[in-house]
Queue: 2 jobs
Job 1
Amino acid sequence: MPELPEVETVRKGLSPIFEGARLIRIEQRRADLRFPFPKDFTDQLTGAVVTSLSRRSKYLLADMDNGLVLIMHLGMSGSFRVEEAGKKGGGGQPDAVFHHPKDKNAVHDHVVFHLEHPSTNRPRGKIIYNDPRRFGFMTLTPRAGLEDHPYFAELGVEPTGNILDGPLLMTLFTGRTAPLKSALLNQKLIAGLGNIYVCEALHRSGLSPLRKAGTLSQAEADRLAGDIRQVIAEAIEAGGSSLRDHRQTDGELGYFQHRFRVYDREGAPCPTHGCNGVIERFAQSGRSSFHCPLCQG
DNA sequence: ACCAGCTCCTGCTTGC
DNA sequence: TGCAAGCAGGAGCTGG
């Protein structure tokens, strides 16, 4: 499911209820997701107050007042939903309508965080992690030295903000023989891009996903860097893309999928002005690439 | 060092 | 209607 814009959307949704809350009880309903939970996972969390919720690449990071950081990754199909205490139906939407009628999906609710207001000890609600494919994971690590943690030590630049520009992209791509599609999916170069937004950025830039990364001109790199930042910013603004699994934490759909120009649009006319191409799909390093054979070089 | 391919898992969609 | 194959937003591991 989630690439950077979806994870950022989740962060924004969780932060009002998560930040400042005490984790009064944690239900860990199975021993592993993609990886085993750390030993004493629930013990280490119980009683801690979440001081901030941040994001790095596709990781969510909950800092706690005990000096630990809860690292959460949604994999392909992970999602959170919030049920606020004292709101109708337990807050948020009832389970039964959140994912599917009848909610066969409830068996995939793997972790439940029960929250309370630390000052009053009153219930604040719960946050539920659901993940049918279980490619997501959670772990704990000390905040001190977090940047040296294996998940983060080699992570590339964020495509948000203004760090990623043409000259930096040229530096990252120099000497690379991998196709642009693979290079942009490489989290050690740029962190947070996934299949959707790579396809979309390449189309905006008029570059073929098959083009060797090391062959970009400075002008092309300038354009691509700008288009990556733009498409990510627009997607965050739209609340991410809702295909199968992703929803905002209140159950609302993201709507960037309506702005896809190529992703999941095989056979559709190319939206580039004046281009008469038809969007094609092909497999590239095991993933679907969507592109217009006419306007993408 | 870099790169392509396979793999984990469940469930939805497609084609016969 | 049933059944099997194919495919899905990630990323760690293997082997070349």
Job 2
Amino acid sequence: MPELPEVETVARTLAPLVAGRVLGRAELTCAKILRQAPPGGLAALEGRRVREVRRRGKMVLIDCGDLALVFHLKMTGQLLVVPAGAPRDKHTHLAIELRDGGGFRQELRFHDVRKFGFCRVCPAGELTGVPEIAALGPEPLEICREDFRALLARRRGRIKSLLLNQSVVAGIGNIYADEILFAARVHPLTRAERLRRAEIDAVWSEMRAILNRAIESKGTSISNYIDAEGRAGGFQDLLQVYGREGEPCLRCGTAIKRIPIAGRSASFCPRCQRPRRPPRPR
DNA sequence: AGTTCCCTGAGG
DNA sequence: CCTCAGGGAACT
């Protein structure tokens, strides 16, 4: 599932394939995917040159000067650059022609089995007004340690839910939240206000270490994740707890547990991530 | 803060 | 068959 490292990898692989190229005809084959379009519809994209591709949270932003494309891949979305003649399957919902003057035609395609993902085409100046972007918290790889301490100090609730909450910190999903808390040895249900400073610092530094390591590995390919060139990532081989329920903890051998939390699941080691013992009553 | 919904392929 | 997974919005 595309989380920060996967979306970062998609943006990085997409950038050299589309930057500088001019967009042509766009074909939309699933209306619900397009949440916003300019007054002229997708035809407004024709003739625009792609300036740059970047990531914010779990979203891919394609800057075309005065227009911007915003994609959210949710769980099964893919952004691919393929030869224009390559067969489209029933999950290809949007295709935009890429012109380059040469004879080799390509398309930027959005593909999404579950159709949870979306695209917005909006005036570049209104990017910060896009609701899904406006609500985002800071980037986990940009926030400094002191700001992260302050961020958690202002929040109540379970640490795992806070890491998953995009308005707290942007880009972390279930896989990396579990991996971060395991590395930091913090129980997922621990309330933020009860975390010791050393634990908050551990969450901050493991968050950076794991996200950076996952980006180096080009993301985690579970389900159908692939980058813009169609390549899978390698971080699934380095996962310590996610998806390992019942298997031995790689640190202590205890069976990994899985519990429901906030409509999701949390995998953790019950020994390495002991819940905080309540204060002793006197 | 928890529940429901969207959607579909995979796995039981 | 049936159930489940899961990001995030919308609801309660």
